[in-house]
Every structure is written in C-alpha cells, then in structure tokens.
Amino acid sequence: MSRVACVDVGSTYTKAALVDVDTGELVATAEHPTTVDTDVLHGLDAALAALQSTVDTVYACSSAGGGLRLAVVGYERLVTAEAGHRVGLTAGARVVHTSAGPLDSPGVRELRAARPDVVLLVGGTDGGDAETLLHNARRLAGTRLRKPVVVAGNADATPEALGTLAAAGVPAIATANVLPRIGDLRPGPARAAIREVFLRHVIGGKGLSRGTRFASLVRAATPDAVLTGVELLAEQAGDVLVVDVGGATTDVYSVLEPDGGNTAVAGTAWHGRTVEGDLGVRWGAPGVVSAARAERLPADDALVVAAARRAADPGFLPADDAERDAEVALAALAATVAVRRHARGARDLAAVRLVVMSGGVLRHATPEGRARVLDAVLGDLAGGWALPRSPRRAADLRYVLAAAGLLAGPHPRAAAAVVGRAFGQLP
C-alpha cells in the first residue's frame, strides 16, 4: 500500500487529501490555517499530522503569497496577446498585465508596476511578423524587471529572442508558438513551460518558507492542478463547469466538447479558466458588492458592512447565523458574477452536464447554504448567458480536484479513480 498526501497550500487554508494510489481510495482529509506569516511548512505539517495516518509521499500545489502573477506581452491584442492571455489562465496564473504591440517606455513602466512573477512573450504566427517579438525581447532585456520570461511566439524569431534575453542575464525558456496559425490556439506547450518556470524560479522566491523543502514539494500552482483535475473529471462526466469561490478571487473552470462552430480569431481554449480578481469573500469582498450592483444583483447596505469587515480581517470566521448568512450571500454573488463573465467570454455552457462548487466558504457552509449558492448560479435567468439545460450538481468538499491534478502525472489511474468516485462516475 502506498499513500500519497496531496496538499493544497492556499492563501487562507492548507488542505490535505490522503490517497491510496494502489486503489485510488481517498483515505482521509484534513485542513489547517495557512501559516504564511511565519513559514507555510508549519501549516502544511499540521495538516499532514491531522490526517492521523502514515504518509509515504507528499505532493503539493500552492496559491499562497498571491499565487502566480503573469504578464503577457504580445503583438496584436485581438490575436496573440489574447491567445497569450488565455494560455496564462489555463496555466494557473492570474494575468495581471497584458500589452500589445512594441513596448515603449510607458509600457515598460506599466509592466513593472504590475509586479509579475513571470512574463509570457508571444507574437507573430510562424513565418509571420518577427520584428515585434524581437523588439519586445530587447526591451525586456534592457529593463531592471529581471523576471523569468517564457518565449512562445513566432518560431523563426524565437532563437534570437531567447539569445537576447539570455545575454542580458534574464532567465528565459523557449517553447512552441501559442498561435502558429490564425485560429489555431495551442496552449499545451506554453502551459507546461509556465509551470516549469513557476516551480524553478517563483515558489522559492516568494519568501513563503525558509530552506528548500517547500519548493521541493510543490509541483504546480493550485489553479493549474485544479484545472488538470477538472479535465480528468470531464473525461468521465462530459462537459463540466467548476466554480471555486476563494478569499481573494473566484476562479471558474469549464471543459467543453468543441462544436466546430467558434471562429474566434485567436482560437478557442476548450479547457478554460477565468480568474475574477475583484471577487472573493475575504480580501475581495468589497469588490463582490460593487460588481453585484453593477450587474443589478441585490446587495444591500448590510452586505457592504459584512464585506468591509472581511476585507479588514481576512481571518474572520462567522460566529452566528447572521454572519453565516452574509457569508453565503457574498459567495452566491461572487459565483454568479464570475460565471456571467466566464460565459460571456464566448463559452457556451448550455450542454454542461455537471456543475461543481468549491472553496472554503462552501466547505464550511450548511447543505442549505451550498444549495443557495448553486441555485443562484443555475437560476441566473438575467445573466445574459444560456444556462445548462439539465446539469447534475455537486460540491468538492474533500479537495479532490486539486489532489487528482497532482496525481495525474505520476499516478494517472489513481487520479482518475479518486475523481470518478468523488463525483459519482465510478462506484
């Protein structure tokens, strides 16, 4: 028997799921507040101890310390910059800056102000424009930003761009073009390269832990691991929508079967993710109220007070029915607005067969509270998007999606089994 603990080090909680990789059985789960103020290993080790079981191996993913901040520098906003933006989201990154065309001095200042962890440099189809990619490589080489760069543009210009960056001492890695031809979006190689850069350059540089042990345990950014878990679930369940309501952001994932009818110039990433950085139930709570009112959703003054309280004290835990009710109300609004934005981004969710809610606020809510959040999303008749026609409903209460994503590479059968059992695809 071999037991692997899959640990998700989040901004608020560190969650551990213990899986028997020989059988695919989910043996135990536990959580502990993330100890980002001291050393995240303290919370990680406490979560492992709470499993009260032998652990043979530990795999971890992390969104602590703000997760992975990505800037995209592209050629033309409608084409390569947009393609790069989509790739960044599938790679588990929060895209904090997007620029298109030749970088100038104001553009460089805006890029630096966004404080990215990684820059994705794209531009030009293969055999197309090369000068913009090379110009932007030279500008990045000449800045004091010194953040790692993933070059995923015109294949003809990539070696020169890589050499320019390397000569200036900028960590850089080259991968296949995200858009080799108009309409042909290929996110896979860039997603893998961003993951590699995240593990090699970013995790150890965030000051989350002393020493090298934490960096050696982390295999992915949390949203990247979750998306992999969602992809595994979709292989068994068909079209899937997952809404993860967090303290700082609300992430929406969907995996859809291509219908061949979308002609978007940048192509379509059918394994999609969007991050709503203004929607969360702690740091992002005031943004939830503002966004809800902008969408003409009900958000009274009492909810304004509740949101401000949570933003001022992200460790706040509701202690009475009124506070728990406010918590669910904020989660319902965050989920509703986030799915509206996701669906409006050229994603037809009408054929979705399974809708899964996730996030700490859902795990700690009552069954009635979870149902209220799901009802808000699936009853959003005024949202301007086609609702799923007859989906099943579920909640990821045991951190299964992140665990399955972490297991997918080394233990694919166990990953498929644990996600299938959790969501009713396997006995």
What can you tell me about this protein's structure?
The chain has 427 residues and is an alpha/beta fold. Among the domains are: 134 residues, 3-Layer(aba) Sandwich (Rossmann fold); 162 residues, Nucleotidyltransferase, domain 5 (2-Layer Sandwich), CATH 3.30.420. A hairpin with a 4-residue loop joins strand 2 and strand 3. The mean pLDDT is 90.
Distance between the termini: 21 Å
Which residue ranges are poorly predicted, with pLDDT under 50 across at least 5 consecutive positions?
A: none
Number of helices, where a helix is a run of at least 4 consecutive DSSP H or I residues: 15
Q: What percent of residues adopt helix (DSSP H or I)? A: 40-55%
SSE layout:
Elements: E1 3-9, E2 13-20, E3 25-33, H1 40-50, E4 57-62, E5 68-74, H2 77-90, E6 93-100, H3 105-113, E7 118-121, H4 131-142, E8 149-151, H5 158-167, E9 172-174, H6 188-202, H7 213-217, E10 218-221, H8 222-237, E11 240-245, E12 250-255, E13 271-276, H9 285-294, H10 301-312, H11 321-344, E14 354-358, H12 360-363, H13 367-378, E15 392-395, H14 400-407, H15 412-422
Parallel strand pairs: 1-4, 4-10, 5-6, 5-7, 7-8, 8-9, 11-14, 14-15
Antiparallel strand pairs: 1-2, 2-3, 11-12, 12-13
Helix pairs in contact: 4-5, 8-14, 8-15, 9-10, 9-11, 10-11, 11-13, 14-15
